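Input chain follows. Return structure tokens only.
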Amino acid sequence: EAKLTIITKQPEINENLTFTTRTECVETSEGLKLNYEENLSEEDVVNTQLVIGEDTVMVQRHGDIGGNMFFKKTTTYETHYNAMGGLSLDMKIFTTNLDISKHENGISAKIDYQLFLAGSSVGKMGMDIKVEYI
């Protein structure tokens, strides 16, 4: 079991969103796998799987809202983002930096990326992920 904290950063508008939950974690050949629920709104609960590998991070959201996100340094990932109301937008992520560090009490990942939705730049984004074993 672990405590998972994810801080999503939008440096251009100086706004951070923090999400913290307890989760089960399993070491697999792909990396450390964590499964948890996100409540994106009162009605919308998304089952999420986070996998932190040696040099990659994958976020897979299963539900009506959200989309998968894949991060690997200097790599572009193209997918779709499902927004509220059934709207699906093309999403592109370019990872500018990814630092993953493992220690005896957990693992952390610092991600910097450029986000594009429907062909337009949303801006520079960041995500700090911290997993603390309980």
